[in-house]
Amino acid sequence: MFPTRWRSTAHGLCSASGKLGAILASATFPSIATNYFRLLIGILSILMGLGFIFTFLLPETRGRTLEEISSDKENDHIEMQ
Hints:
The protein is elongated and about 50 Å long. The protein is an all-alpha fold. The protein is about 80% helix and about 0% strand.
């Protein structure tokens, strides 16, 4: 749901953070999982639940493209000034 002009930068940052998370997880998960397995599963369950809940906070696009949504927001911003 990024604005059109920031979409490529935001996708790049998301991609980079995902890759960094994968590197950190592959390096630390085995040692953490052997010592704190129940705690780790509990934390991951909470994070998945939060992700499920926050998904419903995204605005409904109602079949419109991102360009149409972006132009609506830009027009709203111009009218407010």
